Amino acid sequence: MRFITILPSVFTTIALAAPFTIDTRADDNCTPISYTLTDYTLVTSPDSASVNFNLKSSFADGTGVEDAVQGGASCNASGAQLPNNNVCDVADRRLLFDLRGPQDQAYYQVTHTWTCNGATWISGTPVKVDPLICSFAGSTCTCTGGPMTFAPQNVRKICNSPSC
């Protein structure tokens, strides 16, 4: 019986000691809130392919963030077929993209790295450009898309030690 009378007072004490608001994690400032893709163009023909687009990252609060992609980055690739391991035009290989499907599906994996509060962060986001508006001139297909805004995925801090 004594256990039953003590238990409610213990729960009351714990509830009163708990904070009324939950502070956001300091890491929240380090996570981009969105990416915006613009000026997407894909051109394919029987013997060549090229893709061009711009990508820009946005943070709710840029405090402590060092990210060249915030100013926008130009991304392009070309070849007989679109290659993988494509580096966008931004310093230090901070933005990469790879195909996730056949080149005419406009489906990519975008890998973005940045620095925040002295740590390096990374996101890996699948992106399907949709809708595409395509036109044909002979055997050449030109598709355009965007602008489109999407949320980053798989955001995490890159850690080189057990303490982070």
Topology, please?
Blueprint: H1 2-17, E1 32-45, E2 48-59, E3 65-66, E4 73-79, E5 86-87, E6 95-99, E7 107-116, E8 119-128, E9 133-137, E10 140-145, E11 148-150, E12 156-157
Antiparallel strand pairs: 1-2, 1-10, 1-11, 2-4, 3-7, 5-6, 6-7, 7-8, 8-12, 9-10
Walk me through what this model shows.
- This protein has one helix at residues 2-17; strands at residues 32-45, 48-59, 65-66, 73-79, 86-87, 95-99, 107-116, 119-128, 133-137, 140-145, 148-150, 156-157.
- The radius of gyration is 23 Å and the shape is elongated.
- The chain has a single domain, classed as AOC barrel-like (Beta Barrel), CATH 2.40.350.
- The longest helix is centred in the first third of the chain and has 16 residues, at 2-17.
- Strands 1, 2, 4, 9, 10 and 11 form a 6-stranded antiparallel beta sheet that branches. Strands 3, 5, 6, 7, 8 and 12 form a 6-stranded antiparallel beta sheet that branches.
- It is 10% helix and 48% strand.
The termini sit apart by 47 Å
Number of helices: 1
Strand share of the residues?
over 45%
CATH architect. name? Beta Barrel
Structural Rg: 23 Å
Look at the structure and give the mean pLDDT: 86
SS-derived structural category: mainly beta
Number of domains: 1
Query: What best-fitting shape do the alpha-carbon axes yield?
Result: elongated
In the CATH hierarchy, the third-tier topology is known as AOC barrel-like
CATH class: Mainly Beta
Q: Would you identify the regions where 5 or more consecutive residues have pLDDT less than 50?
A: 10-25
How many individual β-strands? 12
- The level of helicity is under 10%
In sequence order, what are the helices and strands, one letter per element? HEEEEEEEEEEEE
Q: Report the biggest beta sheet as strand number plus sense, adding barrel if it closes.
A: 6 strands, antiparallel
Protein name: Hypersensitive response inducing protein 1
Keywords: Signal
Signal peptide: 1-17
Organism: Clathrospora elynae
